[in-house]
Design brief:
single chain; 303 residues; alpha/beta; 7-stranded mixed sheet; 8 helices; 23% helix; 25% strand; globular
């Protein structure tokens, strides 16, 4: 069994946007929490995190996952809503607690190492942060640069394949194929329509799960983000070319509030096209055939 959880499913605006009074934002404020979206990030449970936005601690708490189990952080690109060093600084809290223990406190577990993987800008940003705090704290963070289309084995069960996004001109924004055991997951945000070389690379996989950018919703797509129409076309193409299994799941994420209907309306509309509308705290369970059907949930790590 492999579990994958969407911790956040919003765009850089958040959902609702705190500075916006449009119809969708106003309605979201008055609705249940499922309509609210943190910055987009995800977790291959329990140890591979994709992106580190500034509100990551809140997203993780809401999804009931423990970040201290994360050993690998894959960063798509350096934009602030996808990579902030603020959550990484919170790793110092363990050291603070060890320095000033209560008399009745049991020994604290040691802070476990974390490796941050990303493009040149991510590496530069992370190293600058570590240099700044290095005199005060040993956060046990290492940094490793990734290159598009050069796979990397994280452990005996897990291999990652960074591929190119169509997102920004000043850095190589990355998307990730994650292989764990016999399952393959494609996490594709932020991106416009995929580059030809990315499609070519994807043809080696039979994907069990695709999570794709749908930022612009009902509005026209751009060369940096897709909309709902392109997400539908992407699913069709991946199925037609055999890249996505017939039994594979397809989830839309990274929704901007100004152009995307609320979840209660979006979900049934996308379901008609075989697409799951992602929401914060959505657990996706991939299981070997014969042990149970692939399923969805909103529970905790024991779901």
């Amino acid at each position: 069994m492999v579990r994958f959880v969407l911790l956040g499913t919003g765009s850089s605006d958040l959902y609702p946007s705190p500075w916006c009074g449009c119809e969708y934002c106003a309605n979201a404020r008055e609705s249940e929490e499922r309509e609210w979206r943190h910055f987009s990030c995800a977790l291959l449970f329990p140890d591979v995190l994709i992106d580190c936005p500034p509100d990551l601690p809140h997203s993780a708490l809401r999804a009931q996952v423990e970040l201290y189990k994360v050993r690998h952080l894959l960063v798509t690109h350096s934009h602030h809503d996808h990579f902030s060093t603020d959550p990484l600084l919170l790793r110092r809290s363990v050291q603070w607690a060890q320095r000033t223990p209560r008399k009745d406190m049991l020994p604290l577990p040691e802070l476990q190492p974390l490796t941050v993987y990303g493009n040149a800008k991510v590496v530069e940003k992370c190293r600058a942060f570590l240099k700044e705090v290095g005199g005060k704290y040993d956060l046990k963070i290492e940094v490793q640069k990734l290159k598009p289309f050069e796979p990397l084995k994280l452990d005996e069960r897990t291999k990652i394949h960074p591929v190119l996004a169509e997102h920004t001109r000043d850095e190589d924004a990355l998307l990730f194929v994650l292989e764990r055991d016999e399952f393959a997951i494609f996490y594709a945000t932020d991106t416009g329509w995929l580059p030809d070389e990315t499609f070519d690379y994807l043809r080696q996989f039979a994907l069990d799960l695709v999570v794709a950018d749908a930022t612009f919703g009902l509005a026209p797509a751009t060369d940096e983000h897709m909309n709902l129409e392109q997400v539908r076309k992407l699913r069709e193409r991946l199925l037609c070319e055999g890249i996505l299994k017939e039994s594979g799941q397809f989830v839309a994420t990274h929704f901007s509030p100004h152009w995307t209907p609320p979840h209660r309306l979006l979900a049934p509309s996308l379901q008609q096209d075989g697409i799951i509308a992602g929401h914060d705290g959505l657990w996706i369970v991939l299981e070997t055939k014969g042990t149970g059907d692939q399923g969805l949930g909103t529970g905790n790590s024991d779901a």
